[in-house]
Amino acid sequence: MYSKAPESRLGRAKEKWNIQLTQRLNAATTWQDFSNLYSRFGATIAAQNPQEAAQIEQKLFNLYMTENGLDQFPQFARQFPQHPYVKENIQTRFEAVKQSGDPAAYDKFIAAYPAGNPFLPPAIDGLSETVIKKGELKACENFLKKYPRHPRKNEVWLAYYEAYKQQNNFDKAAIERFKTHYPGFPYPDMIQADIKASTDLLYANIMKKGAQTQALDFIKLYPDYPRLDSMWLRYYTLYKAEKGDLTGLERFGQTHPNFPHKALYNKDKDKALDAHVEKVLAGKDVSLYRSLVENYSNYANINKVWRGYFQLLTTQTENAAELESFKQRYTKFPFPKELDAAIAAQKKKDMAKAYNTLGTSSTTTDYLDFVKAFPASPHQSEIEKSLSTRLAASGNAEEIGQFLDVFPKSTRRPALLKRLYPLATADGSLNSIMAFENAYPDFPDKAKIADDKK
């Protein structure tokens, strides 16, 4: 084309040229056709129609290699030394990628060339081979996303699955997530087998060196596992080593009512109970005795516990009321006669102690309280005589009234009633007189009351 022609002629020439170029492109079907275009008009097309130039270069290369094979690239290079793929030596690049065995290098090579390039199918095949051999998780995943219909996709799936399992330490939950995320995985039976195998492997590891918490987690996660009884035993053995006393075993039984080894548990609990009993018997903690007799009434040697409890109580008690409370609380105490004797003996001690506290500074109320607390005291007559003499002289109406309540049959009662009457009716009111009469109907001087009522 003549570039210095007038603009109008130049425009018409370009238009005619484009029409002819389009016709030639549409008519070209073989690499020879494109070779002819490339050889005759390559420079002009490159200058005036760069897109069409690139199309011719690609068609020429693709058709030539398809017809003659990739091994004929050297011949192509000699015939078309200015071709872009020859200048960058696409074959050498491809061989370098194959030698690298690097999925990223393959991806970069494939992305550099348009679809239809003859080097792309072997490059994609080489990528599949590399991905399968290396078994890298991300590379496998990318390949499956980009080439879901590749002939070796199932092999890539296997490589991907194996990489996934290893990365997740063959964890059953992870494998189950894989199954959920990839329902189209071509080997579903393999997943099921691996789920079972992962559970078996976890079982074996825990049985060999697993911690207590791991054993319990396994029991909770896999309640239908066929060898669950053995895992229960593993868990129980580890638990017992840490908390094998009576309290710990009782907590275990409450927390795990479905523990399958009942006979073993009961045997261990009996041993723990024996050890606990011996510990309690050697100590002086009343609350521990109480817990045993109240919570283990069917214990084979419970009478030994009762006796120890009773003996400890009698040495620690401060008054008979504690022993009487014990008697009321434990109506089935196996040694009732000994308990009654202990109560009687303690009452004597309490009475002697209480009497010894009385003295010249004690009040009438103190003495009366003693008599009420110990009605069988041998000191009753002595106290009655002393108090009646004191009250007859003191003229304390309230204390005389208290005395008469405590000693209703005192021989000094008539005299004290006569002493009390004027004190109780000092206001001379009819109400006071009638109240006294009602309270003390045995008042000896009824004539006096009758006169005072008038």
Helix/strand order = HHHHHHHHHHHHHHHHHHHHHHHHHH
Q: Helix amount, in percent?
A: over 70%
Tell me which oligomeric state these chains represent: single chain
Taking all residues together, what is the mean pLDDT? 87
Shape: rod-shaped
Continuous helix count: 26
Q: Which spans of ≥5 residues are poorly predicted at pLDDT below 50?
A: none
Largest sheet: none
Radius of gyration over all CA atoms, rounded: 57 Å
| Beta-strand fraction estimate | under 5%
Structural class: mainly alpha
The CA-CA distance between the termini, in Å, is 165 Å
Number of strands: 0
Structure report:
By secondary structure, the chain is an all-alpha fold. The protein has a domain at 362-454. It is 75% helix and 0% strand. The chain contains 26 helices and no strands. It has helices at 7-27, 31-48, 50-68, 73-79, 84-87, 90-100, 103-111, 120-134, 137-146, 153-167, 172-181, 188-209, 212-221, 228-243, 246-255, 262-281, 286-295, 302-316, 320-329, 336-357, 364-373, 380-394, 397-406, 413-424, 430-439, 446-453. It starts with 6 loop residues before the first helix and ends with a helix.
Q: What descriptive keywords fit this protein?
A:
single chain, 454 residues, mainly alpha, rod-shaped
Q: Could you provide a short overview of the structure?
A:
The chain is an all-alpha fold. The chain has helices spanning 7-27, 31-48, 50-68, 73-79, 84-87, 90-100, 103-111, 120-134, 137-146, 153-167, 172-181, 188-209, 212-221, 228-243, 246-255, 262-281, 286-295, 302-316, 320-329, 336-357, 364-373, 380-394, 397-406, 413-424, 430-439, 446-453.
